[in-house]
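Course assignment 3, question 2. Fill in each field.
Student: A.L.
Task: Predict the tertiary structure for the chain below.
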Amino acid sequence: MISALRARRLDIAAQLHDTEKKVSKLRAALANLDAAMILLTPDHPDGIAKRRDYRRTRYFAPKELPRLTLDALREAKGPLSLGDIALHAIRAKGLSESAQEAVMGMLFPVLRNFVARGTIAKIGKSRNSRWTVTP
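Answer field:
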């Protein structure tokens, strides 16, 4: 009787092991299908992209870039380009000029925020845009 029970237990354990493998494979297939659906239909509620992790740069302390931006615009005799503002910030921090592209990318939201608040004005609509402090 005991040997029959042991045999039955081994049989059930083997079936359970096989079923767990199948479930694992099915879950992986389901995850792949979900990912494909998200790529193909981004406006679908399940297709909401995961939030990006915020990676803060080590170039500037909090609120330092906006302060340097306003300093550059206030000291200027006329409107400044994005590159001019970036160079001012780079020189003020003592960074290498190879950081200019990265700083220019950081400046867009800063400038947009100042324009929205009315602190500065944007002159132009393309790459040749210039910024100046509003009176």
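Instructor remarks: DSSP finds four helices and three strands in the chain. The chain has a mean pLDDT of 87.
Grade: pending
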